[in-house]
Records
---
Amino acid sequence: MAVDEEPEPPADPEQVLASYRWRLDPEDLREVVDDPEELRTVRQRLTDKLASALDNRSRARLLSLRAVASRVLGDLDDALDDGRMALTYAEATGELRRVALAQARLAHVLRWRGDFTEADRLFAEANSAELPDRLRAALHEHAARSCYDQGRLMEACHHFERALDLRGEGDAELLARVRIGLDAVAARAAERGFGPYPRGWDEVLDRDRSPVPARDGGQGLWGYADAAGDMVVPARYTEAQPFSDGLAWVRGPESDRWSLIGPTGEVVVGPTYLAAQPFSDGLAWVVRDDSGWLAVNTTGEVVVPPGFGDVRPFRKGVAAVRREGWGAVDAAGQIVLPTRYHGFHTRLADGRYVDGFTDEGLAVVDLAGRKGVVDRTGQVIVAPAHPALLIHPVAFLATNGVGRWGALDRRGAPLIDPVFAHPNDVITQIESLLTDTTPLL
């Protein structure tokens, strides 16, 4: 008697979406779905998975993917609700890549709704240099489409060009999509011109465009000038630091102590400190006497008590500090990493140096010449055991005792054996292991 074969379980909706190859409309540069019913089924299965997803990571991922499906199906109100909720859950994880994906998927929904100001801001906020190049390229590609919708065609071209710089070589799918985008730009430009001059990230993000230090040649003193070069704060200071967080430290000729001023020269804190560093994350390190560095907020209130011999700027709520050794404090002044290390040596795989902790909240610490990795909560992810160590967007590159390079995963477990002469060879190996070759936005 024949035994009936069991029906195959339905494909996982996340895998279905990950393998989806969207077709772009060559005129509006929006994704087109050939089988809406299939996509509705995928969306329903995402909803089923959400019913049992309890942790922030899973809910952020599933909600933002459901936002993608709803957007392509034209259900933009549902997509917006899911996108905003997904970003809330992603931010609760504190994971840079997860937050960037949620920001980008929400921005894509906003672009389809015509909410370009918020969409462009989210694309810009998401595009951290610490993310994998393939994701950064996708962010630039989608930012280009948003600019295209607005008639900012020069700006769109700049984003397309940046996407190709990051991932153009060997990425046939990206090349094909960018080619469609550039053809659309050329056709529209022939009809209407290239539109406004391209904006920089600062303008998109509406970052503070405070006046900059400028010297009065006659008196040799410093003041501040606006973008047009006009002096908006008179030249009356011996020393003047750039504005940060809307405030600047200045020192007048009549005092050896630093004062704090606002953008029109109004005094926020009178001459008080022997040394001062610019504000970062709403806090500034200052020295009042021989008791060491302390941190104040934008009103001059002491937030972190004195006692540190050396300090680094706050970044995402934590700062590297030195007492008997190097460690870290949070914005409330609590020691989150014991001051037992010989230094911070945070270098990224692309060669850049970070002063303390990365945006993701990671730092490379040195203990007796051996490098390890800690996070902003003080957790040791990689014990200090490596002569050299670099932070890669999805791994850690590290050397062994004879200078050969390998990789550890983000939990500190071995990923690639240390057999390579150069870190670039390890990066190539990591690229071959990644499964999300086309980030789904």
Note: Residues 37 and 73 are 9 Å apart (CA to CA).
---
Amino acid sequence: MSNEIRNLDPKPLWNKFADLNAVPRPSKKEDRVIEFMKDFGNSLGLETFEDDIRNVIIRKPATKGMENRKAIVMQGHLDMVHQKNNDTVFDFDTQGIDMYVDGDWVRAKGTTLGADNGLGVATIMAILESTDIAHPAIEALFTIDEETGMTGALNLKGGILTGDILLNLDTEEDDEIDIGCAGGVDVTASAVYDEEDTPEGSVGYTITVKGLNGGHSGMDIHKGLGNANKIMNRLLFGGFENFGLQIVEINGGSLRNAIPRESVAKVIIAGMYDEAFVFDMQEVIGDIKKEFSTTEPKLEILIEKADLPSKVMQVPAQEGFLRAVYAAHNGVYRMSADMEDLVETSNNVAKITVKNGELVVQCLTRSSVESSKFDLANALRSAFELCGCEVTFGGSYPGWTPNVNSEILEVLVNIYEKQNGEKPKVVACHAGLECGILGTNYPDMDMISFGPTIHGAHSPDERASIKSAQKYWKFVLEILENIPVRN
């Protein structure tokens, strides 16, 4: 790991982040980072254990003079989103993140950085290791699988935690204090379909959509970014209607919580339409690139000759599938009527796989209003059931209802204003923070979320601001000193 990261200020934070990022920790494969965190807690002589679902809890007593303060839970998630550029050779299961400094930013070479939520986890580690930072009694809660199911939070039982206040360190703008978030539900459409022999006289093509920004399907969903699956479907639909295009296979997107950056489809057309197909597609590509010229300047769409396959998707199944994907809502569905500029409900058409007689479409629907969440989920279900798909809902988790009268909110607002000469933005976000879920078993716990500035989360463009980390660290230390006294 580069020394330039370890030498950044504040050193306790960046050193722990470097330690953490040396450990592979993709979602649902957290065995190594769980053991790493338990070894860390035990090495400090602190009470350290994992619960039934494998969340890690480490307890540290209050420093001298802070024993009468309310106990706090400092919480972050151990897993990270694993995304990489197409031309980057990297194995998230075995390699640590390769980081570098770029001006005010810490970045990774061709992959996600893991600052979401690695900087939050590193913060907690630095506090646990410290010998000179004043703090009340701390329960450090390191949850698993936040990014692909909120599994750790959903399965944390009541009665394990004893803290009065929860500090969630998973917000990504340093001038924001989060007091609410969206819930979510996975919507999955699947079907089997019949294939037929490739007609004689056909020509094979590979269509590639790439170069999109991608991003967080909650925090970035309102930015008008391109969705590779929707763009690909537009191309396939036009090719089918105008030239009888038939699908061989599609592989688009990767994770539900990442706006899809790339999609590749293998198709065939009748040889008699070869030149006309390419000419027409280039016109459509020009239109799409013009539409996205502001938000997606690096968008590339390639149409290249390919080997002829032996089998293709039958036309009736293909037509229903293409129309269903076209009808499936993607992006903002409704803005909040109660909080200015807050996305209330959205959907991300995240991953599409079509191959060998099976198709799967994976979506993540988010909303801060439970009824609206399922309204959109049912709209998606209806579109896909009309083409014969089986649709399931899974991984549903609740949103976090804002508490504007929170005691810890008042503490944070006052400290921020004193340190920065202006008030912070008190917001609710469209991402899925774990606070709402944790609150179901700990309803009396006062919860707040904040963090350093991180841009491009869930994409290889993820980067963390060095200057913001310094501002954030100072904020954290004063918060710990000013936790309210127990009643």
Note: Residues 3-182+399-481 form a domain with the Aminopeptidase fold (CATH 3.40.630.10).
---
Amino acid sequence: MLETEVAVLGAGAAGLSLAHRLAGHLPGTRTPSVVLVDAPPGPLRPPPRTWCFWESGRGRFDAALRAEWRWLRVCPPSGAPIEGDIAPLRYKMIRSDDFAHLVGRDLARSPNVRRLEAAVETVEDVPSGAHVRVRAPDGGSAVLRARWVFDSRPPGSLPAARTTLLQHFHGWFVRTARPVFDVRAVELMDFRTPQPAEGLSFGYVLPLGSHEALVEYTEFSSRPLTADGYESAVRQYADEVLRLGQARIVATETGVIPMTDAPMPRQVGASVFRIGAAGGATRPASGYTFAGVQRQARAVAWALRRGRRPVPPVPHSARSRAMDAVLLRALDSGRVDGPALFSRLFARVPMGRLLRFLDGRTRLYEDLAVGLRTPAGPMLRSAAELAWLPRRPFD
């Protein structure tokens, strides 16, 4: 039997971030032993993906950034684009492979962190800890005993919710024959896409050079598209809206992010906790997760190093989650026109403030000011309705 104080299950953003926070000695604090369990190559290991977030100044993972920007652009369905300078914030893009390489290099030098490539089979509470049964790539099984377990793996199903939408997307990394991309600004939401019968859609462009970019098609709706549906949607956006001309697809990525008002359980055993998206790090109304993961990892590591009970916090305030629940209900019910709503918000609220709002870092009066820029009647009706809606499983 292997023994450790902390077992971290999954080596995605959440698992790697927590292990990174616990790597090495900090004066005046404890240094717990850590085993990071990473799934072997195959269906349990997620494909490479892109994460975006915003912060001011230098950040912990800047060495792994693919790009960063200080200008954002939102395109309404018609009319002039809305642009904004978000200084002192920077909108940052990081690829999961680059993040894993940077963090992995630091973990390899840490005397208290051990990496284990294995598939997790079961997690069971035992007195004063938990047992994690794992299976190695060669088929052999073992039991890892830990005082604390932090599980970042995707849950098998979503908790019951009043509203659950899916943010699902497909993107192309492209190289174009001619310079077509504005390297100065991110196309955050481009609503010049055909809108689905339910929900909303938009284009998203992260320019990496005048000839290179990640071009994505995104929907907020209840069901993902087929593979052919995504390809058709991205091609229509690239050809008819962006008019890229001759372009080569270098790589692709596809993802689904639940946007739900369900309370995500952070403790699933006496010594077993969920972190990351599985533990509520995703902001319900936007789908952004990376910044919430960092706040959660920082708090858990602080508690562990000081011998406190390391319950992962909810990275988003109760007020933020309540406002998100109203927005999700208004969108799902069709009471508000999504493209019109978001275009209006970005036109009437400074973009830096809106990003701070999406990160839960605004004060009450700023939240109220954002709320006043939304359609009052539909939003109030949605808020009143929430109290009577039952929570239902997502099927």
Note: The chain has three domains: 2-48+95-157+264-305, 164-260, 318-386.
---
Amino acid sequence: MIPSTNLSRRRSRTQQYPFLAKGIETIIPPPPYEACTLADKILVYATSLIIVGSPFWFYGGIIYLYRKWRQYCKLADHLSKNDARDSNGERLSEMKEGLQPLDTGIAEQYARYRMLAKRFGTALAAIILLSIVGPHRNEKVGSMLGVRTWRLWDAWLNYVGFTVLRDHGNKNSETINPEFDIQSSPAMFAFIPHGIFPFGLAFSCLPERGYQNTWGPFRPVVATATKLFPFVRTLISWMGGVDASRSAVSEACSMHPRRIGISPGGIAEMFETFPKTGFHPNDEAALLKDRTGMFKLALQHKLPIVPVYVFGATKMFRRVQLPHFIETLSRMFKISLCLFFGKLGLPIPFRQRLMYVMGRTIFPPIATGEDVGMLEGDDFHRRVQDMHDAFCSEIVRIFDRNKENYGWGHKTLRIV
């Protein structure tokens, strides 16, 4: 049950927006523009460079350390083989302990190169080891650090003008199943669209302020490719992130609390927008037409799906259209081979308000007490398709009903 204080707060917020159509409830109103202070912007810019830009500086740093290690190894090897000899022509590397070469300067240089090679090699090995098996990624570490309550997330939510609406339409979906509580009941939350970087999904599950009075906590489903982003991977681990493989998601759907969040369009969806050929700047896209995996899992585990459209998620970065084979490779290897940029050409997102709109909950078409495992092939696929069609219709509905509220009355959502 939702506390009465929250209900009264929501009523007062709704009254602030009389222009909303009937059945649309304001859960979190947009903060005033000036709520984002200079300190907030500095935090956002710094963490963007560190987190979003991590593939650039992290792997650049790995390459730098490797090259420096190889450089000093070669220099030391060169001295030991060719230059560092004593008066009898004996190599420094072959000298017995206690003997000193005539040219002490060469010996000191050799020792310095060996020391530097050891330091760079140790740093390289330590960083790679920590990036693979670092104990800091344990979910308990994030809980101990109170990561969800960090001041950093307030800065981000102020920066994006975090806003949440709920569009019940002409009927309340919870009247179909009054036992369903959006903040605690088992459910699958589907966030559309993915965007260049999944800010929409991240802000819905990481900051406590993001989910506290909206949809409640859940575990995010993330692409395997996020492991290539060292800091992103750490944050995801602290949130109890679930790998996007079918087996991992299925396991998460069967484990308490059975609440997950997913961006069904995934990495491929980021390519389905302008400037891709065939798309207009006023087109928004949801990659759903041939994607039924989410609905199969929802039916198998009897999980309702809550559709959420995130207005503005596609505008936080701009993408450079690359040759088509790059997109093919991205889909093949399930990794984002995408050239994007933000403010000043850096991985700093443009300041774009994010408006989340929750639609009516899509319940699995299963009768009370019915065993899903007994459904035959055609019957199962028919019900999956029914959920798919209902979800697509609901996403289009909440987009069309709320685009004017966001200032996107001229835009169109395409299901691709």
Note: The CA atoms of residues 299 and 364 lie 6 Å apart.
